[in-house]
Amino acid sequence: MGNPLSSLDVTVFRNLYALTFLDLDNTTLTALPVGLFDGLYKLEELYLCNNQLSDLKNGTFRELYTLRILDLSNNSIEHLDPYLFADMPKLKEIGLSKNKLTALDDRLFAAQLGLLVLHLSNNRLVSFDLQAMSYARTLFFLDLDGNRLQSVRIAPNLEFLTVDDNQLSTLQLPDSDYYRMTTLSIQNNSFSSLESTYRFDRLVNLNVTLNRLAAIDLALIAEQFPRLNVFNASLAGIESLGSLATSHRHKALQHLDLSNNTLTDSEIRKIDQFPKLESFEYGGNRIRK
């Protein structure tokens, strides 16, 4: 790690049959010759981030049958061959953040029947349809921060989603009787309503900071998110917290941030239905001293 290499001889790892961990992070690599990793049958973790890789040829990762983690973050990758990862059936986590990807082929992870974690932040994606991907049933963590997303369709089994700093106004959901989402961050987008999130009844952590909400219905939030523990809705232009026509008491919410909105004293008083609150931030609103 950290040694300037630029390129590697195709035979450099040829006799390291017992290798399980390989870190080539920050080595100024510009290319990976096909066959470089041949024979590394026991390799489980491979780190290639912070380099200058752009063109990864089909066969680059052949024979990496036991690889679990692959990190290609912070390179210059614009396109991925749909069969690039075909020889890595045990891959569980892949990092592709900080590249120049505009789309992912539906076939890209067809061989990864147990993919769990996918990092795609800071690319150039305009849309993403997880439900159409072969790994929709296994993926539980998806990071799409800092793209150019205008549409995102999730899958029911997804548990952690962060789509901060995009251009989203809603989330698209497939028909399902249940969703496993527990953590959702939609910070700095263009949401004017939280309606598309109300089916996530297992939600524990919700961040809607820096959106255009104007109003949020605390009574509805208490009803739809019975397990919600942390709710951050600062800097969201919120003027109203709803009518609170229900007497429902929320028993899980412990941390609430409504700071830097345009709420008045009468609106702030509506948090009475969250008796378990341990921390409440409301500075920067229209509250009389």
UniProtKB/TrEMBL annotation:
<dbReference type="InterPro" id="IPR032675">
    <property type="entry name" value="LRR_dom_sf"/>
</dbReference>
<dbReference type="InterPro" id="IPR003591">
    <property type="entry name" value="Leu-rich_rpt_typical-subtyp"/>
</dbReference>
<keyword id="KW-0677">Repeat</keyword>
<protein>
    <recommendedName>
        <fullName>Leucine rich immune protein (Coil-less)</fullName>
    </recommendedName>
</protein>
<dbReference type="Pfam" id="PF00560">
    <property type="entry name" value="LRR_1"/>
</dbReference>
<dbReference type="Pfam" id="PF13855">
    <property type="entry name" value="LRR_8"/>
</dbReference>
<keyword id="KW-0433">Leucine-rich repeat</keyword>
<dbReference type="InterPro" id="IPR001611">
    <property type="entry name" value="Leu-rich_rpt"/>
</dbReference>
<dbReference type="InterPro" id="IPR050333">
    <property type="entry name" value="SLRP"/>
</dbReference>
